[in-house]
Amino acid sequence: MDGYLENLAGKAGRTVKNWWLKLVAGIFLIAMGVIVFFYPVESYLTLSVFFGVAMLISGIVQIVIACSSRNLFMSRGYSVIGGVLDLILGIILCCVPGISAVTLPIILGCWLLYHSFMLIGLGSDLSSFGVSGSVWTIIGGILLLLFATFILFDPFAFGTSAVVAFLGTAFIVTGCMYIFISLKLKKIHTYFVKK
Question: Can you list the pairs that 120-125 forms with residues at least 24 positions away whose Cβ atoms lie under 8 Å?
Answer without folding.
Answer: 120/145, 121/74, 121/75, 121/78, 122/73, 122/74, 122/181, 125/73, 125/74, 125/75
